[in-house]
Every structure is written in structure tokens, then in C-alpha cells.
Batch of 2 targets.
Target 1
Amino acid sequence: MQTNLFDSTPGGYDSSTVVANLLPKDGSATYIPNVFDSNSCSMLSASLRATLDWQQDQLFMFGKLITTKREVAWVGDAGCSYTYSGVKKFPQAWTPELLRIKHTAEALAHHTFNSCLLNLYHDGDQSMGWHSDDEIELEQSAPIASVSFGGGRKFSFKHKFEKLGASVLLENGSVLLMHAPTQNFWQHSLTKTKRIVPPRINLTFRAIRQEQQ
């Protein structure tokens, strides 16, 4: 029997497990576990690793170009270039699997996305430091939908101006929705862990401002 990669669609998860808002103020971060079932997650992860052009990430730190062990892929509509950490990225074309994941993310977020940044973390030592997704190309009022496949990792928030914080374990098949004005007031990070965790692919679906293309 053929497995349907998208048996788990919006409305198929247990609504009682949804975290309505992780943040105490100045934004909204909604965590939805089990949006995709485990079989779908395994098949999607394998497909994404095989069909996308993954590159080691590059960013400028303290005036130097740093190459990370973490791998990235930038996918989007034609013209959706994106600059972060001083490096400009040009989009790969959407794959059928990515378009279907995007459709699920859009149904949950009630918003249309035209681009996606994918990060491949091979182990728990690979992480993402504190930052906000507030680059000039992004539509500031649009939500960001973060989809996780693979090993569960701790995702933390800290307020930019007050001593406030929150965290959540991003589990296999989950979706985290960050709505405006979250990026204006909060930073987030994916922390390192000494635990042995499987590789993880994170997809953040975004809306690029058309006038910036």
C-alpha cells in the first residue's frame, strides 16, 4: 500500500496539544505538534535531502566570511533573492514535495508564502545563534511558518528589551507559527545539545516583499 505523504493535514492533529501562544507579550508564537505523521516525515526528509542543492552556509562574523557545517537551501518564486548575514542568496525552484508542504503551512498560517529557507543540522553540535527574522526583504506583517523534520531540538525566545524568555521542543512533524510583531520584539535561537540526536531539517516559509525583488 502506497503511503500518502500528506495524510496529516491541517485539522488532522490533536487540537488539545496546540500551544496557543508561547510568548507572554509583544507577539505570537503558536506551536502545533504532529502536523505530519512519522512515515511522512521520513519520506519527506529523504526527498528533500536528495532533490535540493544543499550548500554549507556562509555568513559574515566580525568582518570575516565564515563557512558553517550546517547546510542550507533557499527556495522560492522567481526573483525572490534574500540577503542575510551579508550574503545574498538566489532561489532554487520549488519541488512538488515542497509545494505540498507549503500548502499545509499556508493553510495553518492563513497566509501565502513565496519562499522557504531550509536548514540541515547534522547533529546536536550544529545550532543557530540569537537573531530575529527581520531582514528588509521580508514582508514585516506576514507570519513565518517553521516546519521541523527529524531530531527534536530546543528552540528558545528572548525578549529584546525585557528579561523575558520562552522555549519549546520542536518535534518531528511539528509546525511553529510566528506572527507579527514577534520579530520586532523577540530574538530566537536553536541551542546546542550534547544529546545524540538524529539529523534535522527545518523549513521556514516566508513572504518576500515584491518591491524588493
Note: Residues 87 and 167 are 29 Å apart (CA to CA).
Target 2
Amino acid sequence: MNTREYYLQLLNKHISNPKMIAHSIASEAVLRALARKFGENEDVWGIAGLLHDIDVEITNADSKTHGLVGAEMLANELPADAVDAIKMHNECAVGIPRSTRFQHALAAGETITGLIFATALVYPDKKIESVKVKSVTKRMKEKIFAASVKRENILECEKIGISIDEFVDISLSALRPIAAELGF
């Protein structure tokens, strides 16, 4: 594997939208935190989080190809389990359900970032630092709030043995130190 800087340059080569870059960096932070919790390789999980959407602009987020193209792009860049998790984060393109801890962690970890960002934006100061676990879990139940965020993906945290409250706490703790970099 290469350095994080190398992968960040690779991401920036293929993604021009600053919000998508922030989402990718946030996903990396959450995946690194989950890797620490499970005793997994933090660099492999983190880079999978960073690069999981590398093909989103190429595929125009098409549900039939997004993830598959990214996995193909990264086949010689990352370990096989990371490429697999990236491919499976959009299980619609693959046609089979996620089954490994890494797959569930990436799907849940990258999705929770959107709900946390949306929650921060309704706070007066718009800061991740101010967001509470209870606020995010409350927003989970409000289907109209951040309607594009797939709650079922977030709830995959339970498939890897983490309650929603603990998962939100892990995610917020991972994002707070990089909030300024994310624009929050």
C-alpha cells in the first residue's frame, strides 16, 4: 500500500466536488475509528473509507455501476478486502447483500457522515462539536430529515455488534478532530 498522501492525490484526481472530498475524508476518519475498535488494519480500513466514492463523478452516481468502476480502478492499488468493501458499499450494483464486517462497516460508516453533517447544519453554530448522540439518533427516526440518507445502511452497525448509540458516538468522536477540515 502507498501513503495516505498518495491516495488523497488519487482521490483529488477523480473527484472535484469539495463536499464529496469532505465526505470521503469524514468516511476515512469513521472507518479508522471502527478499525481501532475491532483491531483491524486502520490504514486499510481508512483508505477504503477515503476512496469508496472515487468513481462517483465518473459513473455519475449511477446505482448500476457506482462501486464496480471504483473497485476496478483500485484493484491494483489496495488489498482485496478493501476493494471488495468498496465494491459492496453499493450493493445495488453487485446484486448480493453485504456479508463481511468490513463491508457492513464501510456501508454504515460512510452513510452516518451524511446524517451527522445534516444534523450539524440545523444547529445554530453549525458545528460537529455541538452535535450530541441523542440528536443524531432522534434524526434517524425522522424519515423526512436528510431523506436521501439510507437509515438501513447506518443500522448495519448492529450487524457488526455495535448499537446505534455507540456507533454515533464513535463517529462523532472520529469527526470532531477534523471538523475544521470538513468545513464544520
Note: Residues 4-179 form a domain with the Hypothetical protein af1432 fold (CATH 1.10.3210).
